[in-house]
Amino acid sequence: MAPVDSFFELVQNRRSIYTLSKESTIPDSRVEEIVKEAIKWAPSTFNVQSTRAVVLLKGEHDKLWSIVKKHMDQVPLEEGQKNYMAGRIKGWNASYGTVMWFEDQDALHDLGEKHPMTKPLLTEWSDHSSGINQYIAWTALEAEGLGANLQHFNFHPGITAEVLSTFSLPESWKLKAQLVFGKPTGGPDGEKTFEPLEKRVIVKT
Ligand SMILES: Cc1cc2nc3c(=O)[nH]c(=O)nc-3n(C[C@H](O)[C@H](O)[C@H](O)COP(=O)(O)O)c2cc1C
Q: Is the minimum distance from the CB of 91 to ligand 1 under 6 angstroms?
């Protein structure tokens, strides 16, 4: 098997898994190692390395999802949506851990000062880079038998503010996403469907 085949095997193995338990398939130290490897090797604009991650386990994971629940309970939603959201939050809370992803705005600011031409695009590039970091960790955790799903409770200013204060994080860290993980109790929601590659990839020679 060519090395790229084993890479794509891991790529194909990564799916969004929502049925997760409060158990892990690997020691906490291995989760930490995986997140550190992802952060270390992921590419970033001018190698700025602005991605930050916080791994929440046990009571700390529970704390995050009670913050999300508290704020989401205040959001006016119709009955069906409210019940749906409550069920989803219960599921995230019942998972083993969460990796919270941030982008350090101070690091990006310094890069902008050093290379003024990059300033208008730094936010976009930092989002690209954050996604790459998240993807590596997501794929690696699932390669270790865990399931994971990616959430975005960064749209709510109350949640982002309380996350920073509860976990004593710097104000310059901008919350981007939450990767929830745990031992899978089921598979992905369904077969993955694909748009025709012919319309998505163009090769010109
Ligand atoms: C940038 C990005 C944002 C996403 N946001 C969410 C999200 O907020 N909540 C969620 O449940 N899934 C989210 N997903 C997961 C996608 O819905 C999922 O990756 C897609 O349906 C394909 O399924 P798969 O992950 O099993 O391949 C996100 C994925 C990406 C790449």
A: no
